[in-house]
Amino acid sequence: MSNDFIPAYPSIDDLRKKAIRRIPRFAFEYLDGGCNENINLHRNTADLREVQLLPHYLRDFNGASLKTELFGIEYDAPVGISPIGLQGLIWPNATEILAKAAMKHNIPFCLSTVATSDIETVGKITDGKAWFQLYHPTENDLTDDLLKRAHNAGVPVLVILCDVPTFGFRPNDIRNGLAMPPKMSIRNFIQIFGKPNWALRTLFNGQPEFANLTPYMPKGLDMQQLGKFMDQTFTGRLNAAKIERIRERWKGKIVLKGVANEADAAEAIRLGLDGIIVSNHGGRQLDAGEASIHPLQRIAKKYGDQIVVMQDSGLRTGPDIARSMASGAKFTWMGRSFMYGTAALGDKGGNHTIAMLKMQLQQVMEQLCCERVEDLPSHLISRE
Ligand SMILES: Cc1cc2nc3c(=O)[nH]c(=O)nc-3n(C[C@H](O)[C@H](O)[C@H](O)COP(=O)(O)O)c2cc1C
Q: Which of 326, 271, 307 is nearest to 52 (CA)?
């Protein structure tokens, strides 16, 4: 058993419950919620868990390895840490905690453009191994500068996002004043006073800010002005022309995140991208959308030999990673799970969560009699 694993919290649900007690309600709801009525959020996990796997008990078995190669890099497990905006609001220094844990366990960490630590800091922590997720600036100069900084920080893989053409409608965030422009209410301050550990750490580390963007922001913006700055600086909608421009400039690998149908997957291939993450932003954008396992199955079948197909949204366990890979994903990502771990256990949260997921996946592989994660599809029970 890994020294990083803390037996008091053997599931993501344990970490989620502990996180509720440790952080202010507005921060927890920002992390935990989906959009509208949270239908897509719950459907992601529920439909994924319809996938069933077949074990073999009498076959020869030489041990299971979780190692896998992605874009020429060997990782210790087929799961990465998805980009999360405003991580430091959920737990102070969460970005750094998770980047360090990813480095220690040799899995990829992806930094969001709107994370609370900058690309240079995370590049140093991860020895240039972190991935970077780009939101789409209105001005090409800003895109080019961010690309240059990512390149200088050693980023091997650029992730471009297509599933936020507009802000998701998130009732909790609207109620809590966290939609754009953000607004701190008396209610939020009362919630902060109820969580002294979070409050003291936030005081010590300073108010979370969009660290990647501070070089471009006028100093001393209030919340209203910040909202306006973000609105003017970024446009959500991605298109082929923008992708082509980025492809011409970025010499490393490019992954399109947020793919939800076969046509967009085909377009990614046509535009010369290297990978896609089939994702619906963890159910935060389109409540009427389908669970990400369904487009994953279709896309992997049709295009899995032409582009690297990965999945996120709804995965919470080692068996979920196995279900996704058996369904055709070459690699998986998780967002909330790592953040629940960090909010619950602070500095130890990233290491614990990764160690736990590795143990769970290892157990599934041994149970199935599956030696390599690439062989998981041969254990899929097909219902067609
Ligand atoms: C609080 C929160 C903030 C997020 N911020 C970003 C972001 O800045 N950029 C991005 O590409 N995805 C963002 N996502 C989506 C995640 O990268 C990922 O797709 C999603 O969390 C996966 O679903 P899961 O949480 O069920 O694992 C965010 C998700 C959450 C929960």
A: 326
d(C-alpha 333, C-alpha 321), whole Å: 9
Residue 30 Cα to chain centre, angstroms: 15
Q: Is 281 a catalytic residue?
A: yes
For residue 127, give the nearest of 146, 163, 100, 166 by alpha carbon.
100
pLDDT of residue 223: 67
What is the distance between the alpha carbons of residues 380 and 384, in angstroms, rounded to a whole number?
11
| Domains of the chain with bracketed CATH | 12-379 (3.20.20.70)
Q: What is the pLDDT of residue 197?
A: 87
What's the DSSP call for residue 323? H
pLDDT of residue 282: 98
Stretch (H or E) spanning 304: none
Rounded Cα distance, 19 and 280, in Å:
24
Say what the pLDDT of residue 81 is.
Answer: 98
* Cα(103)–Cα(27) distance, integer angstroms: 26
Distance of alpha carbon 282 from alpha carbon 40, whole angstroms: 8
Cis peptide before 108 (omega within 30 of 0): no
Give the per-residue pLDDT at 351. 98
Place of tokens 């844990």: 101
Strand partners, 310: 277, 331
Residue 68 three-state SS: strand
Positive or negative, the CA dihedral 42, 162, 78, 14 is negative
Residues with a CB atom less than 6 Å from ligand 1: 30-31, 44, 82-85, 112, 114, 133, 161, 257, 279, 281-282, 284, 312-315, 334-337
**Positions in the chain whose pLDDT score sits under 70:** 180-183, 223, 384
Report the sign of the C-alpha dihedral through residues 101, 104, 106, 108, in that order: positive
Q: How far apart are CA 295 and CA 279, in angstroms?
A: 9
Q: What is the pLDDT of residue 180?
A: 61
The identity of residue 333, as a single letter, is: W
- Cα separation, 140 vs 127, whole angstroms: 28
Q: Distance of CA 103 to CAs 128, 251, 257, 328, 357, Å? A: 10, 23, 22, 26, 16
Task: Tell me the CA–centroid distance for residue 382 and ligand 1, in Å.
Answer: 30
